């Protein structure tokens, strides 16, 4: 499943949950699923997004996140090295300070 398809599918599931009265929604994405969670976190409706070993997530992706987000990176990771995670953190801190 492509990232865009996964995001659309997740949005449908989230809408169905809301229709059933669910008010708190979280999302966790491991590896390539992290990109999906980042896209979901851009609309500001998910209260608890978390990324684990975030692959394919770019700094520009992170800059669009509108809610607090947990990012769990590994010390040795070629897809999301510690330096990139630090850039994510810096971008998120700037975002929070200016919003």
What is the topology?
Elements: H1 3-19, E1 26-30, H2 33-41, E2 48-52, H3 59-63, E3 70-72, H4 82-98
Parallel strand pairs: 1-2, 2-3
Low-confidence blocks of residues? none
Briefly note the structural class of the backbone.
alpha/beta
Helix content: 40-55%
Rounded average pLDDT: 89
What integer value in Å does the Rg equal? 13 Å
Number of strands: 3
Compact overview of the structure:
This protein is α/β, with parallel strands linked by helices. The protein is 48% helix and 13% strand. The model has no long low-confidence stretch (mean pLDDT 89).
Mind explaining what this structure looks like?
There is one protein chain. The chain is of the alpha/beta class. It is built from 4 helices and 3 strands. A 3-stranded parallel sheet has the order 1-2-3, with helices on one face. Helix 1 (3-19) packs across helix 2 (33-41). The mean pLDDT is 89.
Labels describing this entry:
alpha/beta; 3 strands; 99 residues; three-stranded parallel beta sheet; 13% strand
